[in-house]
Write a structure and sequence with these properties.
The chain is an alpha+beta fold and about 140 residues long. The protein contains five helices and five strands, in the order ααβββααββα. A hairpin with a 2-residue loop joins strand 4 and strand 5. The longest helix has 21 residues. It is globular and about 35 Å long.
Length: about 140
């Protein structure tokens, strides 16, 4: 089973070929899946389509109520960290969008779309933060 880091390297390589007319296939991207990314989250599928790279996750060992309760907090966390991830930035600079979908027991719990505009908006917001992540008072 491939590690998550090696999957990211393979994904980056395959997607880096897009501008030269070589297309990554979903079969290549999904080799070695599913893979656990943390104790409650399993990456099951990577889909390509409509200028979007879509990561599909399955949540484990939690109730639907707990997952729904954490949804908004997790959405903000995913957006901020995805926009700061160098691999995601590469995709965005290639005019690709990224989408993260989380399922629990066949129910979609969370869908997070990442695009250039969102990351630019978040960057403008965080530019007002102090280096120690404290808000500056003006």
């Amino acid at each position: 089973m491939k590690s998550l880091l090696s999957k990211k390297i393979i994904l980056y390589y395959l997607l880096s070929l897009l501008p030269w007319g070589v297309f990554a296939t979903e079969a290549h991207l999904n080799e070695g899946l599913p893979i656990m990314v943390d104790k409650n989250t399993e990456l099951n599928d990577i889909r390509l389509g409509d200028m979007t790279v879509c990561y599909v996750y399955k949540l484990k060992d939690m109730t639907v109520d707990d997952a729904l309760e954490e949804r908004e907090k997790n959405k903000d966390f995913i957006q901020k960290h995805a926009c700061n991830d160098i691999d995601i930035q590469v995709l965005l600079h290639k005019d690709l969008n990224v989408k993260f979908i989380y399922y629990l027991d066949e129910m979609e719990i969370l869908s997070v779309k990442i695009n250039r505009q969102l990351c630019q908006d978040l960057e403008q917001f965080t530019s007002f933060l102090h280096p120690r992540n404290e808000y500056l008072t003006v």
